[in-house]
Write a structure and sequence with these properties.
elongated; DNA-binding; homodimer; 159 residues
DNA sequence: TATTGTTATACTCTATAACTATA
DNA sequence: TATAGTTATAGAGTATAACAATA
């Protein structure tokens, strides 16, 4: 029987009009693509998005403590521990004793860590440029500005 | 003993210069705030970000099948099943037999589902407006446009 | 054979409580 | 008592393989 004609070529008839106005809907999908893309670019270096961010922050701020780094990366301290374990085992950073406070560790990059951070940063730049191909610098800056607005602009959960 | 003077007021000395240029870094942080905020706004309705999106899509596209919805929401079919189980148990949607294809379910909203989708959408609009307080419509549109560019603009993993 | 929905499973990311050693 | 780092654990979210029913 020839009943298959009404099948339509799949998702072409699905409308997402009601969701199109929501920034969150678009950001989630874009974020998924971007993160997968970034992690693929970082894989040759044995890094993922978060471990890369941590390494760069340590290179840029040698001697900083784990609590400071966790705050800067907006992740919880317990979750940072395993990330740093990985970086340390890979010989990219060291956890050094702080004489002034024997509870704390000073995070420092090794030479290997600094070199890898540079290479990974270069790879990331290439990758992001490809993903945002043709996006003018001013538009890119605006997006970053709006992300900052969202992040800090918690109009007030209790306000 | 007065040795605490060198302690500094925590993260104020931490620089993230090297990460500031990366859209992914900012998007991830903004996304975390936005998603937490959205989920808080949706909690009174018993919805989360994904289940809300699914419900709205079903209201807007009654009769669609699960594979179509999973494609539209960019989630895997197995993960959609549990989301739909929740919506169905809450009496917001029904899974109806499709005569033409006895393997498939047609997803339809109940009256209760349609009403809840309207209320949740209104709440979301209020919440997102607060989070993006003062952001002009054209800038908002640009952000959405760039998100679309990122999502579709996979310059080519194999290209 | 291929596809729809499903189950089971695993892996990542994130969040919280509680412990230790220091302060 | 409070804080730095840690451990253990639980919860989301996401991804893949494999199955039954049907095409």
């Amino acid at each position: 029987m020839g009943e298959a004609v009404t099948k339509a070529t799949e998702a072409e008839s699905v409308s997402d009009d009601a969701l199109r106005g929501f920034i969150g809907y678009h950001m989630k999908r874009a974020m998924a693509v971007l993160q997968a893309d970034l992690n693929r670019a970082l894989k040759p270096f044995g890094l993922r998005m978060v471990s890369y961010s941590a390494l760069v922050m340590i290179v840029e701020n040698p001697g900083l403590r784990q609590t400071q780094l966790a705050d800067a990366l907006a992740i919880e301290r317990p979750n940072l521990v395993v990330i740093l374990d990985g970086l340390e085992e890979a010989g990219l950073i060291t956890r050094d004793k702080v004489p002034a406070d024997r509870r704390a560790w000073a995070l420092n990059p090794t030479l290997k860590g600094r070199k890898l951070a540079d290479k990974a940063t270069a790879a990331n730049r290439v990758d992001e440029a490809r993903l945002l191909k043709g996006l003018p610098a001013d538009k890119r800056a605006l997006v970053i500005e709006v992300m900052g607005l969202i992040e800090t602009g918690r109009g007030g959960p209790e306000a």
